[in-house]
Amino acid sequence: MPLWIAATIFAAFMQNMRFALQRQLKVTTLSTGGATWARFAFSVPLVGLALLGYLAMSGQDMPRIGTGYWPYVIIGGISQMTATACVVALFARRNFYVGITLKKSEVLLTALIGLLVLGEAVSGPVLIAIGVGFAGVLVLSDPPKEIGLPWTARVFNAASGYGLASGLLFGVSAVFYRGAILSLEGGDAPLRAALALLTATFIQTALLGLWLAIREPGQITAVIASWRISSLTGLTSMLGSMGWFIAFALQTAAYVKALGQIELLFTFAFSAFWLREKTSRNEVIGIALIIASLALILWAGLRN
Known SUPFAM superfamilies for this protein (predicted)? Predict the structure, then answer.
């Protein structure tokens, strides 16, 4: 099995666990910003230790930072941080499974962003898949009907906005992270991935921590007080992000994100058997359309 496939499947599994933990933080003790910051703050030291440990074991030198690295990693980090906040806010509006599925518009958008930013072209079948996936997102974003509420208000709602915004921003972060990793010179894929991840996570922790200190006094203290869950959030975040970054170092972002749709299966199992949440007919149709579109993207990617 190619390393990028194994890394992607592992990353998707860990990401599902991390979102479940963040959901718990959001609905119990923390604000959207606090639950988002918990992910980054507790993962920074873990990423740093992983980087130092891998350097010592592999005997490699630290990769050299090439042209374009800092713009790529800063834009990628800010996009990922904002996207994570959108997903956390979404948990309060729709059930866990549908929230994650709406976020999956990131795969449909990553192919387009990758073409525009890195020149990594997509094929005709991928463009067809984008249309199918968009239809699925529209179906998913239509909540249960309410008397007197027009169709436009049911489709273009806050839940839909959070889901699509997170998808766009996660797509931006994936492409820009790949650009950052490719701009590093020297070292193997895991080492370059670890350095880019450490840089991005440190930037995210500092920026969001400053925001919380100014705009939400007390949230940083609350995050520290919830260390039992927050530390697990940081651990799963570090493991999942390392998987994504290694995959981005080896394969185009669009195909990595396409394979990452296996997360939907993990999420469905968690939602059905742990949270015992129910899914409506519209949600099933929307999910089926999105899965079909992403399967087509993956098929096209594996042919190349």
Answer: Multidrug resistance efflux transporter EmrE (SSF103481)
